[in-house]
Design a protein that fits this description.
By secondary structure, the chain is of the alpha+beta class. It contains ten helices and four strands.
């Protein structure tokens, strides 16, 4: 995406804003028109501040109200000076110049102050020159300037909202991609660990020409169960929980460990404490089937259920 600095984009309008009052400053006797000189100084500051100062799009409220005050003072000062010089004209730069910084005020998201400033400008011209003021001194062009600024303001605000929305979506997408990549790397690492522990026994089984003896069969069952645990147990298989699972299996208990993501948001210490409570609940179990599961999206983080064939009521049923 091509971006242009706001300061660079503001240079051309600022050059135009400076050019406007030049004709007034070149008129003979300008150095004696003190009120108009004050108005010109106020105008130049308002244009400079509105177009070039302050970071970001939003104009500070203090500057916006300063521009509103300038929109009241500049025409009043110039008109007072012209009347004191027996000149009934207001001067074209006053109206268009005021419109320039009011337009900048609108574009920079201070619509209320810009509109109120335009109302004061129109009211001043009507009050001094009557309805003729509506068709003189470039007032129509000034109104077009400000209303165009209002349109640009709305468009820019909408663009900024859409840009921020897309940024949030982009961050979420990158986060999801990172999570998927991390999960894939974790799966690869677990697969490597699983294969590393299973390959020796599988090699023995593959090389054996005789039927497996009971001891080897039991070892194969334990390795198969360990493979399932490594693939499905994930964060639940802390050293303490792994030791407890092995203890139960050595007693002939069928053990299933399912990590469905219920403890993902817990810290390592909180997860270890939770699993310690689960281990304590299993100390009296010596037969049957044990299921340790961490469901996602539930009020609880972990369930531990121990059942014995032929008994309707579980020996252990805990939610943590």
């Amino acid at each position: 995406m091509i971006t242009i600095s706001r300061a660079i984009a503001s240079i051309i309008p600022f050059v135009y804003a400076v050019y406007l009052p030049i004709q007034s400053a070149l008129v003979p006797g300008f150095s004696t028109r003190y009120l108009e000189m004050i108005a010109l100084a106020i105008y130049l500051y308002s244009a400079f501040a509105s177009l070039l100062l302050f970071r970001g799009l939003d104009l500070p409220k203090a500057q916006a109200y300063s521009n509103l005050l300038a929109a009241v003072l500049i025409p009043a000062l110039v008109i007072a000076q012209r009347f004191a010089s027996n000149n009934q004209g207001i001067g074209g730069w006053v109206v268009m110049g005021t419109a320039v910084f009011l337009t900048a005020t609108a574009v920079r998201q201070r619509v209320f102050q810009a509109l109120l400033g335009l109302v004061f400008l129109i009211a001043t011209l009507i009050l001094v020159y009557g309805l003729q003021g509506l068709t003189s001194a470039g007032l129509a062009g000034a109104c077009v300037f400000v209303f165009a600024g209002l349109g640009v303001s709305k468009g820019m605000a909408r663009t900024i909202r859409d840009t921020e929305k897309f940024k949030v979506i982009e961050v979420q997408s990158l986060s999801n991609i990172a999570k998927l990549k991390a999960a894939d790397e974790e799966r690869q690492a677990r697969l490597g660990q699983v294969l590393g522990s299973a390959v020796p026994l599988l090699s023995v089984i593959a090389q054996s020409e005789q039927p497996l003896d009971p001891e080897l069969k039991q070892s194969a069952k334990l390795v198969e169960a360990t493979l399932r645990d490594r693939l499905r147990g994930r964060d639940l298989l802390t050293p303490a929980m792994s030791a407890e699972v092995q203890r139960l299996r050595s007693l002939g208990v069928e053990v299933v460990v399912l990590d469905e993501g219920g403890t993902e948001e817990l810290t390592s210490s909180a997860r270890a404490e939770l699993l310690s409570k689960a281990i304590d609940a299993l100390q009296d179990v010596s037969e049957g089937r044990v299921t340790i599961r961490s469901p996602k999206g539930e009020d609880f983080k972990l369930t531990v259920v121990a059942t014995v064939s032929g008994q309707a009521k579980p020996m252990v049923s805990v939610r943590l």
